[in-house]
Design brief:
Number of helices: 9
CATH architecture of one domain: 2-Layer Sandwich
Oligomer: single chain
Largest sheet: 6 strands, mixed
Strand order of the largest sheet: 11-12-13-10-4-14
Helix content: 10-25%
Distance between the termini: 45 Å
Order of helices and strands: EHEEHEEHEEEHEEHEEEHEHHHEEEEEE
CATH topology of one domain: Gyrase A, domain 2
Structural class: alpha+beta
Shape: globular
Length: 366
């Protein structure tokens, strides 16, 4: 992709004014960090409220009498069983049960759903859904919205001061609180928080109020990555790919048991075969010895020097206080306490399999 093809956030000028340093991500020019720096941004989110511009992600409305059936075909999901305002983490799978994308689907009405897709997959996701929709009485409508996330224990208070009441909204629920707005209690940090899709003019007004609140601080992509990694959350394109299935990824909790058994979603037969024979590899948390982070792509080997797996995400965890990583290991090794080595440019760094997440989730569930 050339620089001419790079996409820009609708409110890029706000990030420039805030002193952001930009970099490329999923075809977009994105704020990587702000003058406060990655460590302070990370810790501020855990302690107060972090403000993220995630407008590179895509919102789709799926509506019509066949909307639930379409989504239940496209995803390992019983969309018709979702309650109004309930959100569900799910996937688009290929015929081999590989993860094309991970998504959040929210039921907004009897025949109306909101789908939130990842930036790097948005174009393909739209094509995929529209091709499938031809067999159903349903419409797929991509929305042109600014998409913001505010995350952390004081997120609700900062929004309240800015005139947005979050009320009784609980984790993994979403509503349309105003015309052309979508707000869910969800996020990518392990903290309580919200994601809000809204028109550009409304976003400018909301942000003008939020940035005046000392509890809210702009957070870049670098801290977003360390926050999600500490929370044990996957990044598509690294921890999840079209070659990785939900069983290997440790994400079968996202697929209801009746859907596993009898759902007619794409990839159903392949996933049932994988479950029957057992996944060959498993996603695990990994804690390197010492202070040196181990990055994505590093090979994992066992005590005898045999290949054991590989790292898919890695860095330093500011809240955990030590390096953190995730990766895939041979299923027989995937036990907390197992000791391996990471090969970092020829140096063997001892690394231990640990339970995820590295920092506890603090979602508001009730």
């Amino acid at each position: 992709m050339t620089s001419q093809d790079t996409r820009h956030l609708p409110l890029e000028y706000l990030h420039q004014a805030a002193g952001a340093r930009f970099g490329a991500f999923a075809g977009w020019s994105m704020p990587l960090q702000y003058p406060a720096g990655v460590m302070k941004e990370h810790l501020h989110t855990r302690e107060h409220a972090g403000l993220f511009d995630i407008s590179h992600m895509k919102l789709f409305v799926v509506s019509g009498p066949g909307a639930a059936d379409l989504l239940s075909r496209a995803c390992p999901l019983d969309a018709g069983a979702l309650e109004i305002s309930q959100s569900k983490y799910t996937f688009f799978l290929n015929e081999a049960a590989g993860i094309i994308d991970d998504l959040i689907v929210t039921r907004l009405g009897a025949d109306r759903f909101m789908v939130v897709a990842n930036a790097g997959n948005a174009v393909e996701d739209e094509k995929h859904l529209k091709v499938l929709a031809a067999d159903f009485d349903a419409k797929v409508e991509p929305l042109d919205r600014v998409f913001l996330a505010i995350q952390g224990p004081e997120a609700w208070a900062a929004l309240s001061r800015a005139g947005v009441e979050t009320g009784t909204l609980l984790f993994m629920h979403g509503v349309e609180p105003r015309p052309n707005w979508f707000m869910s209690r969800s996020g990518y940090t392990g903290e309580d928080g919200f994601e809000i899709g809204l028109p550009e003019a409304d976003a400018r007004d909301l942000l003008a109020k939020l940035v005046e609140d000392e509890r809210a601080l702009w957070i870049g992509l670098a801290a977003r990555d360390s926050l999600r990694l500490e929370a044990g959350l996957c990044l598509h394109g690294q921890d999840l790919t079209p070659e990785i299935d939900p069983a290997s990824a440790g994400l079968m909790w996202a697929i209801p048991k009746d859907v596993r058994a009898s759902g007619h979603f794409i990839g159903a037969d392949a996933l049932r075969s994988i479950l029957e024979r057992g996944a060959a590899q498993k996603r695990v948390g990994l804690k390197p010895d010492g202070r040196q982070p181990v990055r994505a792509g590093a090979a994992l080997i066992d005590a005898e020097g045999n290949p054991a797996g590989h790292i898919t995400s890695g860095g330093f965890g500011p809240s955990a206080g030590h390096p953190v990583a995730m990766g895939y290991v041979n299923a027989a090794l995937a036990k907390p306490g197992a000791k391996l080595f990471a090969d970092v440019r020829g140096t063997k760094i001892p690394i231990e399999i640990v339970s995820l997440p590295f920092t506890p989730h603090r979602y508001r569930k009730g």
